[in-house]
């Protein structure tokens, strides 16, 4: 079997697929890419047993169909230095080898039987369906992944929750100390449904999705999801369990609102953070008279820092404590110029919102306060 294709097209597809493969796999075949030639199309697959990615690339001068496996590391190492040009693969199924020829040379690699490769679990007939614009999904994943947990006791917190309701699609992530809730009003369903996407497939999607104008189609049942994006498919096992009632932790009445330049506050937090205690990472905000005073202290090492940031504030003077690293993460995951910090009192969670919401969306982040002593 012999076929020709673009070197950069093949390398680009394989590089994307390689992200799903674990460094140590329980099955040797999971270290391989699966090549499946059907007519003028080469279908490529990789998996880690829980997540499977599929893509395709058009080929030329193909003289037959076939299916085989090649080790991912060896092939990527060999291809990455070849500039854009047509390359030819000659596959000898009897000798279990593949010869790859290019302009100035060639190399050969062993191939394996692809029949040992595990098949993806099919979705049930009652699977639900979501269609969401590619850019919108990418933006929401980018905003949410940092807030997921690493919790062995509550694995449901380790993923991103997709909650489809008659009003909107809510995309939620929380580790118990911070929370992100994105509402997309253009995506909704009369039949409520939900699923929890694990962090690894969420990261894979975040890196795969670009700025192209197409819809990502997500089909899911109680155990698995099939995500069709552009020129590929991601099939993944979902996190099973009931996600906590995220709306119940979001305070509704927050009379004290601070409007502040995001970069100014973020920069100030980064400067004072090194002076916080290693054990608490506490930074105290004193808000009054259109200014925020940030205080950090580590008395064990005789370190203190204070910085002032201008803001708009007409509420009661207030002192409230936050974990500096969590606050920095939240501000870093907005892309707006100004944010609003909505507060009720020092004992209740603070809400951080963009001053201008994205079109047809509602973005909210929450940070739990820390106990401070006046």
Task: Describe the model.
The protein has helices spanning 7-18, 72-79, 134-144, 199-208, 262-272, 324-332; strands at residues 2-6, 32-38, 41-47, 51-58, 66-71, 86-92, 97-102, 105-110, 128-133, 159-164, 169-174, 178-184, 193-198, 215-220, 224-229, 232-237, 256-261, 282-288, 291-298, 303-310, 312-313, 318-323, 338-343, 350-354, 361-367. The model has no long low-confidence stretch (mean pLDDT 94). It contains six helices and 25 strands. It is elongated, with a radius of gyration of 25 Å. A hairpin with a 6-residue loop joins strand 23 (338-343) and strand 24 (350-354). It is of the alpha+beta class. The strands form four sheets. The protein has a nine-stranded antiparallel β-sheet with strand order 13-10-11-12-25-24-23-17-21. Helix 1 runs antiparallel to helix 2 (72-79).
In brief:
This protein is of the alpha+beta class. The protein contains six helices and 25 strands.
- Largest β sheet strand count, sense and barrel closure: 9 strands, antiparallel
Count of alpha/pi helices:
6
Beta-strand content bin: 35-45%
- Radius of gyration of CA atoms, rounded to a whole number: 25 Å
Overall SS class:
alpha+beta
Strand order of the largest sheet: 13-10-11-12-25-24-23-17-21
Question: In terms of per-residue confidence, which ranges show pLDDT below 50 for 5 or more consecutive residues?
Answer: none
Q: How many angstroms separate the termini?
A: 77 Å
Helicity level: 10-25%
Overall 3D form? elongated
Question: What's the total number of strands?
Answer: 25
pLDDT averaged residue by residue:
94
């Amino acid at each position: 079997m012999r076929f020709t294709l673009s070197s950069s097209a093949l390398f680009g597809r394989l590089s994307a697929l390689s992200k799903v493969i674990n460094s140590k796999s329980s099955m040797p075949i999971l270290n391989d890419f699966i090549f499946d030639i059907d007519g003028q199309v080469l279908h490529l697959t990789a998996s880690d047993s829980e997540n499977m990615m599929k893509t395709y690339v058009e080929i030329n001068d193909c003289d037959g169909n076939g299916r085989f496996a090649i080790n991912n590391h060896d092939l990527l190492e060999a291809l990455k230095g070849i500039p854009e040009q047509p390359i030819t693969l000659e596959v000898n199924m009897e000798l279990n080898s593949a010869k790859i020829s290019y302009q100035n040379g060639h190399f050969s690699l062993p191939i394996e039987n692809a029949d040992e490769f595990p098949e993806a679990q099919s979705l049930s007939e009652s699977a639900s369906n979501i269609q969401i614009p590619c850019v919108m999904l990418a933006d929401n994943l980018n905003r949410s992944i940092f807030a997921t947990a690493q919790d062995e006791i509550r694995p449901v917190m380790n993923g991103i929750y997709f909650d489809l309701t008659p009003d909107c699609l809510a995309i939620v992530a929380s580790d118990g100390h911070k929370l992100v809730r994105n509402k997309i009003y253009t995506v909704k369903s009369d039949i409520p449904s939900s699923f929890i996407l694990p962090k690894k497939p969420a990261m894979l999607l975040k890196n795969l999705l670009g700025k192209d104008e197409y819809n990502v189609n997500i089909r899911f049942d109680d155990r698995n999801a099939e995500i069709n994006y552009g020129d590929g498919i991601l099939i993944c096992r979902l996190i099973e369990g009931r996600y906590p009632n995220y709306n119940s932790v979001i305070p509704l009445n927050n009379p004290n609102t601070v409007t502040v330049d995001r970069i100014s506050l973020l920069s100030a937090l980064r400067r004072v953070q090194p002076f916080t205690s290693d054990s608490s990472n506490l930074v105290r905000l004193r808000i009054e008279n259109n200014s925020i005073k940030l205080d950090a202290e580590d008395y064990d090492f005789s370190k203190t820092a204070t910085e002032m940031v201008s803001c708009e504030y007409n509420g009661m003077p207030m002192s409230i404590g936050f974990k500096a690293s969590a606050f920095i993460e939240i501000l870093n995951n907005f892309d707006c110029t100004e944010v609003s910090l909505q507060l009720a009192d020092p004992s209740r969670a603070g809400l951080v919102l963009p001053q201008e919401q994205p079109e047809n969306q509602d973005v909210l982040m929450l940070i739990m306060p820390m106990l401070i002593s006046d």
